[in-house]
From TrEMBL:
Record's keyword terms, sorted: Kinase, Transferase
Organism: Oreochromis niloticus
Stretches assigned to the Carbohydrate kinase FGGY C-terminal domain: 284-511
Gene Ontology cellular component terms for the protein in this record: cytoplasm
Classification via SUPFAM superfamilies: Actin-like ATPase domain
Signal peptide (residue range): none
UniProt name for this protein: FGGY carbohydrate kinase domain-containing protein
NCBIfam families from the UniProt entry: 5C_CHO_kinase (TIGR01315)
Molecular-function GO terms, alphabetical: D-ribulokinase activity
Keyword Kinase listed: yes
Residue ranges constituting the Carbohydrate kinase FGGY N-terminal domain according to the UniProt record: 6-260
Length: 566
């Protein structure tokens, strides 16, 4: 009997990837293509939905080359939570002053709508309780309001369809306008089972979106992994090189796909504190350009229940400064809280590549090219090990250099986009050693930021016992170890390093009906690869460093208050 495959497609910040995945969750082949990013103004980031779809087709054809089309039973898409704008004929509409219609995507990290987000927060509508009490400029309502107020003629009046990028991809594939609960609940204020709150849109000046039962932003919804339409349309099948009718699953935001690819893995035999506990004892960290912190929650009675591992939530947890609780946004029937850091991998790149010694670092790495797998970060990791005494941990090298990592604002748990980055402890020295120490201090700050989020969730009632990491930064051994050390929690890495692609393939598997539910597919397709335990010898070091971390925040706010005085 011929082997069955699913295709997972992941659209990240700067690239499109695809994977051919087996029913057991093993990656048979992968492909990647870059996508363009334009910055027409400061804090404005735009892309092209036409280019993104073309690159999706390219990578799918690459990973399915040589495989019989009949063997591919389903396809799933995930993407960044960017905003796609189309007109009545489903053609691109420009989202910047340049007027170029091909640049029709407002990226997730675009902060042009900070002022609109502030106004929405001050409006104090009840929907804000589901987003930590503060509207982020990375969500869609403030971006929509900005388009109406600033590009009324060239964009707003021409627009007939506003998609989250994951929903745009599933529409291109299936022709179905059904939106995923993941996108609408997490980024648009949709709240099942009630649906849209018309009073919210009216209160912020976007009552024109109520027309025709909210058709511009989505009248019909479905849980992630639900089959859409009749599968691939004739046109999409030809574009992708697959059979018409191949099952298409309702999409996910990229971070949530990563969550599916790791958080449901069977941990029996790994002696983890989450073993035998419901999924609520786990947190998934999807670490790339930014980091998302995913945690499910349920009522106390269900926490005590051992009848099933994936209980239906009845009592959602509200965490100030943390998005959610969102019902069925990742796992059907469970509430989801979502913390996050707006820049992680991007911050590390910024700190390293902006340092005076970066050229020297590149030269050193170039000389070591014969060593397999060497890159600037593995080199820095090795360099830090050589700087540390054989009897002491690398972590201790960061005792006199401290970073506050919010160079692009704070997403969680402070929900303050106005915060800036800080570095304390610099000298006049600019050697390669200094670059390595700044790199170390940055990773430690990001890990302490995760601890900050965990503390906020714990105070609200979460009981996280194990971290599950995936994404590009999870391939950096030192980054992972520092997260275990700083939080005091074991870290699980997936068997398949591209867990986000596995999560996208899970959607196709569910849509094909080969698995009865997301939960079953998660258990069968997500597997534990490696467990990293925290180093207890540096626990007191991180307790002290965390106190310094919080003092940096207090100092920055004190400075802001002083400079705001007249």
């Amino acid at each position: 009997m011929a082997e069955i495959f699913y295709v997972g497609v992941d659209v990240g910040t700067a690239s499109v990837r695809a994977a051919l995945v087996t029913r057991e969750g093993l990656l048979k082949s992968t492909a990647q293509e870059p996508i363009g990013i334009w910055e027409p103004e400061s804090d404005h980031y735009v892309q092209s939905s036409t280019e993104i779809w073309e690159k999706c087709c390219t990578v799918v054809k690459k990973v399915t080359h040589g495989v019989e089309k009949s063997q591919i039973r389903g396809i799933g898409f995930d993407a960044t939570c960017s905003l796609v704008v189309l007109d009545q004929s489903f053609q691109p509409v420009p989202v910047s002053q340049s007027g170029d219609p091909q640049r029709n995507v407002v990226m997730w990290m675009d902060h042009r709508a900070t002022e609109q987000a502030d106004r929405i927060t001050k409006n104090g509508h009840r929907v804000l309780s589901r987003v930590g009490g503060v509207m982020s400029p990375e969500m869609q309502p403030p971006k929509l309001l900005w388009l109406k107020e600033n590009l009324n003629e060239s964009c707003w009046n021409k627009a007939s369809h506003f998609f989250d990028l994951p929903d745009f991809l599933s529409w291109k594939a299936s022709g179905s306008l059904t939106r995923s609960l993941c996108t609408l609940v997490c980024k648009w204020t949709y709240c099942p089972p009630e649906g849209w709150d018309a009073s919210f849109w009216t209160s912020i000046g976007l009552d024109d979106l109520l027309e025709n039962n909210f058709s511009k932003i989505g009248s019909v919804t479905s849980p992630p992994g639900s089959p859409l339409g009749d599968g691939l349309t004739q046109e999409a099948a030809a574009d992708l090189g697959l059979d018409p009718g191949t099952a298409v699953g309702a999409s996910l935001i990229d971070a949530h796909a990563g969550g599916l690819g790791v958080i449901g893995a069977d941990v029996k035999g790994f002696h983890l504190p989450c073993e035998g506990q419901p999924i609520t004892a786990r947190m998934a960290l999807i670490c790339g350009t930014s980091t998302c912190h995913m945690a499910a929650n349920c009522s106390n009675s269900e926490m005590r229940s051992k009848q099933h591992a994936y209980p239906i939530s009845e009592q959602p947890l509200f965490v100030p400064g943390v998005w959610g609780p969102y019902l069925s946004a990742m796992v059907p029937g469970l509430w989801l809280n979502e913390g996050g850091q707006s820049v992680t991998g991007r911050l590390i790149d910024h700190m390293v590549k902006g340092h005076t010694a970066y050229t020297q670092l590149q030269e050193q790495v170039q000389q070591r090219l014969p060593f397999a797998g060497e890159n600037i970060y593995s080199y820095l990791n090795n360099h830090l090990s050589s700087m540390a005494n054989s009897c002491s941990a690398v972590d201790l090298l960061g005792s006199s250099l401290h970073v506050w990592p919010d160079f692009h604002g704070n997403r969680s748990p402070l929900a303050d986009p106005t915060l800036k980055g800080m570095v304390v402890g610099l000298s006049l020295s600019q050697t390669l050693d200094d670059l390595a120490l700044l790199y170390l201090a940055t990773m430690q700050a990001l890990a302490l930021g995760t601890l900050h989020i965990l503390e906020a969730m714990k105070e609200a009632g979460h009981e996280i016992r194990t971290l599950f990491l995936c994404g590009g930064l999870s391939k950096n051994n030192l980054f992972v170890q520092i997260h275990a050390n700083a939080t005091g929690l074991p870290v699980v890495l997936p068997d398949q390093t591209e867990a986000v692609l596995v999560g996208a393939a899970v959607l196709g598997a569910c849509a094909s009906r080969h698995y009865s539910s997301i939960q079953e597919a998660m258990e069968k397709m997500a597997k534990v690869g490696k467990v990293i335990q925290p180093d207890r010898e540096v626990q007191s070091f991180y307790e002290r460093k965390y106190k310094v971390f919080l003092r940096l925040l207090a100092h920055q706010r004190e400075c802001q208050a002083l400079m705001s005085q007249r």
